[in-house]
TrEMBL record:
Lineage: Eukaryota, Viridiplantae, Streptophyta, Embryophyta, Tracheophyta
Organism: Citrus sinensis
GO function terms (MF aspect): signaling receptor activity
Sequence ranges assigned to domain Leucine-rich repeat-containing N-terminal plant-type in this UniProt record: 10-68
SUPFAM superfamilies linked to this entry: L domain-like (SSF52058)
Membrane topology per record: Single-pass type I membrane protein
Superkingdom field: Eukaryota
GO CC, any one term: plasma membrane
Protein name: Uncharacterized protein
Protein family according to the UniProt entry: Belongs to the RLP family.
Domain Disease resistance R13L4/SHOC-2-like LRR: 206-310
Length: 362
């Protein structure tokens, strides 16, 4: 008769988890600086339940820990928002957990320390989230050796005390080595004065790509039009991203959210943008687009939010907006639209927010 009893955790892995716990402080009284610069205000001290003896010593049942039910090895560690404070070094017990496939340390306070190179020991990782965790300094090249990664999130690590940085050639190397990625979030990671590499368009499995506030420069590479599975694309607030939106953007038929705001993109919008039939949110604010808004945007029948604030769009308010029956947010403020306020504005059944201020409307 097959046993239904799940294996308890391995002694060495229990010891490694406890050593990792002991190397950090549990601080659930978050100070004001943490509140000011952190998005996550509440934490729960998951590791408080981890006991060396005299209680539940089966680490597979500890809060935040999951084990493989066939062999008992720890394969998942979710310590997001766990009130952890301190720094992690390469000799940490964490890096002895070589069967880990899933690691989430987001929303903790690692005290302006660097991501340790010991991360390379976790070669089976497919999911890694170190976002909003007070890591600063150079991202170690060892992360690029984690070739099984499907999801990588290093976003939100930018503070008055320092910022997380990616070396100039590292984004190119990342696209060469982490070819299985479906999610790449480098929001607020400094990739200062570096163009978006052409080979990023080779990551054919990507569904989520965010390079917002990275200070990348140059043009949006046309190769991003090869990312046919992409659902979310955020290149906002880079300030040095210039030129036109490539026509290849129209290939992204699965795209639901496109945010290119806060750059110096110019010229007219490509007609191919009308091919984005799944698009729900389009934000092109704070650029220097000019001319009329192309009528093909009227094809985007799923659109819920259209935000074109602070550009140089001109002419009458486009009549095609009346076709966007799902629209909930429409913000065309701070442009050069002229003419009369069209009747169709009152016929959008889902509209909740409307801003047409700072134009030349009568």
């Amino acid at each position: 008769i097959a046993s239904s009893v799940l294996p308890i955790c391995h002694d060495d892995e229990r010891s490694s988890l406890l050593q990792f716990k002991e190397s950090l402080i549990i601080n659930d009284t978050i100070d004001e600086s943490y509140h000011t610069y952190h998005w996550i205000y509440e934490c729960r001290p998951k590791v408080a339940s981890w006991k060396p003896a005299g209680g539940n010593i089966d680490c597979c049942s500890w809060d935040g820990v999951e084990c493989n039910e066939n062999n008992g090895h720890v394969f998942k560690l979710d310590l997001s928002n766990s009130c952890l404070q301190g720094s992690i070094n390469s000799s940490s017990g964490l890096f002895n957990l070589i069967h880990l496939e899933w690691l989430n340390l987001a929303g903790n306070d690692f005290r302006y320390s660097e991501i340790p190179p010991g991360i390379a020991n976790l070669s089976r990782l497919s999911y890694l989230n170190l976002s909003d965790s007070f890591f600063i300094g150079q991202i170690p090249s060892e992360i690029l050796e984690l070739s099984n990664l499907v999801s990588l999130d290093l976003s939100g690590n930018a503070y008055p005390g320092g910022i997380l940085e990616l070396r100039k050639s590292s984004l190119t190397n990342l696209a060469e080595k982490l070819t299985n990625l479906e999610t790449l979030n480098l929001g607020l990671v400094s990739i200062f004065n570096t163009p978006i590499p052409h080979n990023l368009g080779n990551l054919s499995s990507l569904r989520f790509l965010s390079l917002n506030n990275c200070l990348v420069r140059g043009r949006i590479p046309s190769s991003l039009g090869n990312l046919l599975k992409l659902i979310h694309l955020d290149l906002s607030q880079n300030q040095l991203l210039s030129g036109e939106i490539p026509a290849s953007i129209g290939n992204l038929g699965s795209l639901k959210e496109l945010d290119l705001s806060g750059n110096i993109l110019s010229s007219k919008l490509p007609a191919s943008i009308g091919n984005l039939s799944s698009l729900k949110e389009l934000d092109l604010s704070m650029n220097i687009f000019s001319g009329e808004v192309p009528a093909v945007i009227g094809n985007l029948s799923s659109l819920k939010a259209l935000t074109l604030v602070e550009n140089n769009f001109s002419g009458d308010l486009p009549a095609f907006i009346g076709n966007l029956r799902s629209l909930e947010i429409l913000d065309l403020s701070l442009n050069k639209f002229s003419g009369e306020l069209p009747v169709f504005i009152g016929n959008l059944p889902s509209l909740e927010e409307l801003d047409l201020s700072e134009n030349q409307l009568s």
